[in-house]
Amino acid sequence: MKNVKSFFILLLKLIFTGIAVGLLIGTYQFLGHKIIHLSRIIYEDKFILNYILMAVVGLLGFYVVRIIIDKIPYVSGGGIPQMELTIEGKYDIKYYLSIPFMIISSYITFFLGLGIGSEGPSILLSGSVGIMANKIFKNDDKELIAVASGAGFASAFLSPYAGVVYVFEEALDYKFNFKLLFKAIVVVFIAYFFSQLLNKHLILDITIDFGFKPKEYIVLIFLVIINLILGCIFIFGLIGMKKFINKHPKIFKYRMLFVILLTIVLGFIATKLLGSESHMISLCLENKGIQSLILLLIFKFIFTFFSANSNMSGGLLVPILAVGALGGAITYSLCSNVISEDLLPIIIYISCLTIYAITTKSFFTSIALALNFAPINLVILPICITALLGVLISEFLKTRCIYEYLKEFIEIKEELKEN
Description:
Layout: H1 2-44, H2 48-71, H3 80-87, H4 95-112, H5 119-136, H6 142-157, H7 160-171, H8 178-198, H9 219-247, H10 255-269, H11 278-285, H12 290-308, H13 317-335, H14 344-360, H15 363-373, H16 376-396, H17 402-418
Helix pairs in contact: 1-4, 1-5, 1-6, 1-8, 2-4, 2-10, 3-6, 3-17, 4-5, 5-6, 6-7, 6-8, 7-8, 7-15, 9-12, 9-13, 9-14, 9-16, 11-13, 12-13, 13-14, 14-15, 14-16, 15-16
């Protein structure tokens, strides 16, 4: 009888967590995309009052976010490293602060148009729901926090299978048991159900009608090489800039304000280049020339590095996908003479997920994402080849998951505070 009671209490906790995550992330993503759309309308209309409006919002946003970050440092950046440290028991996040202030801070980021995304904040928000559920049900279940984080991933990407895989591959670093699998399935699928009722936006919204012919699979080798290079540039460029900033804090004291003002200027000059993913992917699908793609890639790297190191709230996964889309478009341009012109969408799609696997060391999650958005018969073999090769070669090169590097910075800051 005691076991039955314990099971029903566990089930109630899982259902509560799933519903709360789904409603929170679904609403968060829906309103976030509305804010981004409104921002683009303002930037595209070169009316004088719009310049004044964005300047005022930028200055107020800088003031508000800076106060938030000073008081609640774990809403700075994307939130994934902070949540992973919380699951490991090395960090303390207060859900009643992280939920409202991550929403406020990240919405300011989205409205201004910085080059960071909403998936990281979604994972911090959903993990915070897991912390809240533990408080309500009076226990300290770190697995529930990990499961809630996976549910946030599923709700942000609208991919329940990827959310379940995320729990084991990323949040819990391959820890597995069947009780945990039960928890993950219940929470993730309930969260996905409620989230997709509110939010219909697909991060990887690419229509794929054609797959590779046997003789065209050689292109995948070039795709892996290009994404390995881009992945290394992304990781070491971003981390290198962070180290440089930490060594010269006085020089970069007002970097947040600089990035905000730079973004506003870019918004009125080149609105299509703002944001983190969907518009960049659309530009890649237009099949631009190789020179234009390389210039876009250089811009994307620089803009993302500055945005991610500004202390504004926003994640890295979606910018990584955008870099992958550019890598796929470049691969297509280089190989266009030997492959079908219909392969551009699938090459961009596979490239996005390949660089995701390389930079996060998430082979299985990338596969799950691929199968959720595209015809299985067209993408399963290519993504298995590229993701596996990419992860294995990156392991050989001794590169780590980008979040491992970021977690080290957080741990060093915590040690300095204690001393």
